[in-house]
Amino acid sequence: MKLTEKTLERNMVFQGKIINMRQDKVELENGRTATRDVIEHPGGVCVLPLTDDGKIIMVRQFRYPYQEVLPELPAGKLEPGGEEPLECGRRELEEETGMTAEEFLSLGTMYPSPGYCEEVIHMYLAKGLHKSVQRLDEDEFLEVEQLPFEQVLEDIMEGKIKDAKTQIAVLKAARLLKK
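Above: the chain sequence. Below: its structure as tokens.
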């Protein structure tokens, strides 16, 4: 088995502010055809800011699709034109939390929904934090809080933190830091 599909046609269905949607006609390895719905997304970054005393800086914000306020790590989408993930991480950390960091360690990448979306999220651990100025976007409203690393781990395991990028970045950092 090759486990591949050959793209035969692409049809743009929707173009939005953040995402586009297309339908692709593909040839399967058995020669039959199928349709694949694909969400195009520029990708994004999430940052786990870790204070010197072992607390994680989190944000709480309303997420419209779920109609609830979610605790998450600071994050954002890559700007058009090929913004580098690390620069996006630096920008989002300062914009959302009012903090800068001396050191960024890569925690790798993740595919949040590989069945239909091509988004890639780059994850970083940020250390050596310094106060700066919070610069929220005009349509962005959030609360910043600092929580002990162990509490965040517990909240993930108890299902209180539902955001996938936050779960993965925290669990990877816990392994890296031997928590």
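DSSP finds three helices and ten strands in the chain.
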